[in-house]
Predict the 3D structure of the following.
Amino acid sequence: MCNTVAVTRARWTTETTPLPPHALAWLSQRVGLGEPFSEVPVSAPPSTLSADAFTALEAVSTISADGADRLGRAGGLSYLDLLRHRGHGSLAVPDAVVLPSSPAEVLEVLQVCVEHDIAVVPFGGGTSVVGGVEALRVSKSAVVALDLAGLGSLVSIDPVSHVAVLQAGLTGPEAERLLGEHGFTLGHVPQSFERATIGGFAATRSAGQASSGYGRFEDMVESVRMATPVGEWVVGAAPASAAGPDLKQLVLGSEGLFGVITEVSVRVRPKPYGPRYEGFVVDGWEAGVDLVRTLAQDGVPADITRLSDVDETEVALELAGSKAAAVKKYLRFRGVKQPCLVILGWECRSRSATMSALSGKKVVRLGRAMGASWLHGRFNGPRQRDALLDAGVCVETLETATHWSRVSELRDAVRAALVSELGDPVVMCHISHAYETGASLYFTVLVPRDLADPVGQWQRAKTAASDVISQLGTITHHHAVGRDHQPWLENEIGSIGVGVLRAVKAQLDPTGILNPGKLL
Ligand SMILES: Cc1cc2nc3c(=O)[nH]c(=O)nc-3n(C[C@H](O)[C@H](O)[C@H](O)COP(=O)(O)OP(=O)(O)OC[C@H]3O[C@@H](n4cnc5c(N)ncnc54)[C@H](O)[C@@H]3O)c2cc1C
């Protein structure tokens, strides 16, 4: 029996966090509530793994064909995954779960899977929202989820160079706890931090909430150790190198198709002394975009640099409850007509540099209480999503990035596509990461769930939004490609790009056992 993923995959946690009454009142008035969710119990189909293959895998690793263990690794945590786990739409369940406990064991498991023609889905925290861990068998005899939870150690730390080697199965909090014992931090805090893993961050080119300061996950990676069907491959030898193309960049974002990442060597930073988070308001989206662009181009963004549009700000204030009225009154007094919330947080970068760039700009300071409130709720999204689903709401997110000159055009186009498919949804948007040349846009969509066809409702909206996104920006800034963004990949990287990735795959995984049906 396996011993991880004790929680149901139909929700983020087993604890139910109901929406507060004022939030429910606002929702029913603005969004409209659907029918409370009728959860249809799901069960795992019989495993098709042959007895021979089971015995061969059992000889080299820990394996379970138990239905609950298999359901616990069936798919990721997108809105559609949650629907499937609540009995709507068909769920792809792996035939077994394999739990190796060392990099050497991962190599042995891959050998057995090649011999028995078994598809292998590398499984970290299972937080993919793009179908990345869907257990697709494709043309293989069976499919196993290869859960990396047994690779959970800090292998080494070099306090002089600020480099740590982390095993792939460490979750965000575990990695931070182990690094914290040595006075260091990774500073990588995506909203899925609580469940996502180091291997998953590397395999998807993840971006965290403080990536404007610490960099995206790929910026932190020094080297990667990866088990492939043709042997072990270690890429990255020094902080910088001119030894041909940077092959590390081929491994990062490879989404389990080229190999199983077992260890990642990362740049770490001393734990911040006295981090500080503050809230500000600007009048109107365009003013906010200009402000964030200036900070990024002047090289003085805060580590967390986040700008909400008018709709997201309005919802944030509505849901803040009693304090919201006083904030709104103050903003009216300050002459702000279209409030857009800016959250700035400093952990490793200089606050004074950002603040001097803000001086003279039309910005209303809301102070540390607003920053503290953001910090307090930074991981609430997935819990609120559970509660919204329970209340009959379709709730999902989309993300992209583009150049500054197109940021507003892209935002408007995505909103229009969603409105044309969904009727009158609430569409909220924020800039989540600021770069010198552009920014990422993150959308949250709320609409009453279509009772007759909840899966089709979101699939149509997602397709419409992705068509628009693929014309004006990247199909994904940090959620990766998986299965869901696959139809738009060739448009972004070209047929030559697809050919290059196929050639790499053929070299590393000649029989195609690794995560079939994703990315390419
Ligand atoms: C509520 C919520 C919020 C999110 N917020 C963010 C965010 O702020 N920023 C962000 O970047 N992402 C976010 N995500 C997406 C997701 O958390 C990231 O893609 C994350 O990096 C996935 O890590 P994981 O360990 O859960 O990987 P999994 O979901 O288990 O796997 C993701 C992909 O990587 C592959 N993979 C996993 N581990 C390995 C390995 N060791 N070797 C090879 N391949 C592997 C899988 O096969 C799959 O293709 C969010 C998701 C949710 C549900």
User: Anything to note?
Assistant: The longest helix spans residues 489-508.
